[in-house]
Amino acid sequence: MTAKTTPLSEFGIDKKYLAHTPSETLSEHSDLTLRYLYKTIDDKNLEPLIDKLIETIDNKNCELLKKMFIDTVYLHDLGKVNPHFQAKKMENDHFKVYRQETKSSDHSSLSSQMFIDHYLETIGKIKDRGTKEKFKFLLYAFSYHQAKHHGRLASFELYRRDENNPKSYWQYLDKFNIPHFEFYILNKLLFSLLVSSDYYATNDYMANFSVENFGIFSQEDKTELSKKFQDHIAQFQNPIGINVLRNEMFEEAQKNLLLPQNKDKHIFYLEAPTGSGKTITSINLALRLLETHRDLNKLFYIFPFNTLVEQTKTVFDEIFGDSLSIEMINSITPIDVDEKNQEDCETEYKKSYINRLFFHSPAIISTHVTLFNILFGTSKEDNFPLWQLANSVIILDEIQSYNNHLWWYMVEFFDKYASLLNIKIIIMSATLPKLDHFLEEKGNFVSLISKEKRNSLFTDELFKKRVVPDFSLLDEEVSLEKLFDILKAQPKDKKILFEFIKKQSAREF
Length: 509
Known about the structure:
3 domains; 8% strand; 9 strands; seven-stranded parallel β-sheet; 509 residues; 22 helices; two-stranded antiparallel sheet; alpha/beta
């Protein structure tokens, strides 16, 4: 990606200004941050998506808005020209006269103000008054990310409060005909790219560790994984019994996914009963999407519970072995450190930490909590991997586990995130609600299993009688000894699950 940026010389910045100790200049840090921004955009093929978002905000002044977008990242540290920052934080001898003064050494808020002052001069030359006021609002929105790039996003209204004209955030959007979801996602993406590029650049200089691979599937990777998968499922040819039904569902889901009219759809339903092979079917669907859409380059598998994360990781390992680099990212899985390199453990840990922080594996297995923190969180850590979701396939399992009062909210954002950031989402469940019911525009979501096939699966005896409830123990007092007798009576090749309400009861058992 190439785009014009505002030269730092326009702000009087020269080599005497430092960005990091002991000797990285502000110019060097800004240039390195820009290099990582361009690398991120190029490697993840984000430019068409950014252009599309910008066009929805203002299709007549795209060039100016795109320059502001890029400059928000490039000029994020302008405030480090603060002589008190240079004197106290950088211990810069050029500014040692300021060391004894008590004035603030803050640089983030000053960066945003200098950015505003610079662009107000450009915006002031716009002749149309409405466009001029609109771009002032957009400028304030972009500058907010500079002010918060060392913290977390909070209240935009408090950031640019105008006592003489107390409009809310949304009133301004409506006044300037700015679509709400598009504006939100553009700003989330900008904040994500800013804090990520800044982190990469800072780490590159301070730890002498450059990042070259963001964990992205190449077309060759996709072809190899598809071959591995086909080799795996070849053992299930000539199915019998329940596998016949599983195979029918597998084939129908794939056929409907690949229909020409569904090529540009972004959200797919996979509804089938428990035990029908949704995991294998969803992996196949993800591979088909990755292989048939060259712009898709990452896979996310998202679950409600950590136990399902671990189980699915085992399935992936059995199918793909070492051919697939896949990482579990959740609250209980430790950072995976390559211990083979004993010469520099600190560097290896740093590498592993950054890989986890920015989701550098081409395939990620995680939880609903992680995904929703990325989509809606306000901290730097939440937003670091947001740009990785673009041009990806996301498999969402058991989405009905969320409060149904939030479904309308989720589905609106899923629909917008998917279409604007080119995300293919497969939502699967045994009891899936028709979430597109909450959308004004129906038909955006595709059911991969026909109503007739779903009914036949759910009513087939092989599925219907896989689980037969036994309520006989409800009429008696059940002791731990009684449960132990039930356990001893089971054949050794049969699994049995005991569930307790309290941990203490489970421990006693």
